[in-house]
């Protein structure tokens, strides 16, 4: 597997994680005020997931440009 293919697979995996975190936050928001104590932790997970995804996409774009 080439570096680019591995990077695309990693982006796909990170994207799925980010979407799941977003859906978890959405589901949590629908049940408020139940679960209020979990909102900040879940929101942090969403932010971290999307930051990791953005960083990996930038890395992949740089690798594509270098090729």
UniProtKB/TrEMBL annotation:
Q: Does the keyword Heme apply?
A: no
Task: Give the residues annotated as coiled coil.
Answer: 4-31
Q: Which Gene3D superfamilies match?
A: Helix hairpin bin (1.10.287.660)
What Pfam families does the record tag this protein with? Rop-like
Regarding protein family, the annotation reads: Belongs to the UPF0437 family.
Q: Which keywords, in A-to-Z order, does the entry hold?
A: Coiled coil, Nitrogen fixation
Transmembrane region(s): none
Does the UniProt entry include the keyword Transcription regulation? no
The molecule here is called Rop-like protein
Q: Which domain of life is it from?
A: Bacteria
Which organism's genome codes for this protein?
Novosphingobium decolorationis
Organism lineage reads as:
Bacteria, Pseudomonadati, Pseudomonadota, Alphaproteobacteria, Sphingomonadales
